[in-house]
Description:
10-stranded mixed β-sheet, 14% strand
Amino acid sequence: MISDKPFIHLFHMIDKYYMYDVNRNLILKINKNTYKSLEEILNNNIDLNDSRYKAKYGSINEMKKQGYLSCKRFDEIVHPLDPMLPYILDSKLNMIILQVTQQCNFRCKYCVYSDGYENRKYTNQVMSIETAKRGIDFLLKHSANSESVHIAFYGGEPLLRFDFIKECIEYAKEQFEGKKLLFNMTTNGSLIDDTVIEYLVENNMGLVISLDGPKNIHDKNRVFAGNKCGTFDKVIETLEMIRTKYPSYFKEKVFLSAVIDSQCNFEDVNKFFTNCDTVKEMIALSALINDTYRTSKVGINKDFITKYGYETFKIYLNKLKRIDDKSISNIFMKYSQQKDMMFKRFSEPEDGLLDTGHPGGPCIPGGTRLFMDVSGNLYPCEKVSEASEVAKIGHVDTGFNIEKARSLLNIGKLTQENCKNCWAFRYCELCAAAADSLTKLSPEKKLVRCESIRNGIEGLMKDYCTLKEFGYNPQNDVGNEIPVYECI
């Protein structure tokens, strides 16, 4: 589809002016006059092919001759992997996540199983070993062309059923003999004793253990189900036990999951992960409280924004080699790596848009992190709602519903005209969960988040351009100041 408008996005910072060319996936530094001319062209729908404007916008026409300012949009929104979807789901799976139980010995206030979310509730339902074995067989049948496979255990709290997990592991090792087989588990860490950890180490189990910060902050949200007492002391005791008895395993296979409450004192959280001897060398996967499927908004205090922003600023100083890695909290190192990946994408030019394409948000439903609930229902991943008929893409006994999976993969079709004209489509993070109203996919629910996504991407582009001005480059080489009209 060819529009009359150049497919570009303009942004500026004080006296610096930039243009993002969508077709070329390039950010150009431009002067103020060019910026103003491009603004006029976009705001007034000026056709540059009209002879009346050739003299006035001569410099703009020169840019067009150099291959910029194409007006092309997609003719149709179709995910590039759409034709491959049946093949991937038939023979290229690489993971199944088994929901061992819907019960937990914790009652975390922001847990997706709590009353604050639409999708899950604590129940006494557990997965039968027969269902688990059918799930493992399903992974075996649908992973013929995968070099390695992962089996992950999820809850509730999976270690409430340690014997069940052992039976699953032993069965999987028999079935997958000759293929690389990896195990992972997400756990609150409270039920790991000497017997459990010995078995997990023996099977090289990857562990993700939840810990939110110092005692006063962790215990605010994470309490035991029975007595409502805080769980911090028990989790730290577990981590210290693993660190002492199995130091190599602890370093290589044990990770932290920190859910950051935006109402807390972030400085205390940061100091804890930086200074606590037990955890300061660990890789921590941090995230703010999840608002997908949440029934109420998550509040954020101003002090949190200031201190969180300062830690982000330190990441940028680190990228410019002004401060070393030790100055960065370990809860921000993964975040820093993700920024590097995004910045690298900003510096990878393309030849132009094809006739079909898709925003960047969705993964392959089930192809990356297939989730199976206690009853054998199949979902794209563990983050979608189990209460959603939309997100249910099959059952272990009947296989995949390819058309339902295809609709989730091609979620951009739901808002096709908006996505065709969105300058930020490559970097969009919205998947089907953003549109899931449990009974249908809602274009209105999806669109309400689009402006926030575009603002975030523009912010990243501004950060990238600022860093480039000071010599940063995604390959960690020293760059030069960006010349006018040259690609960044």
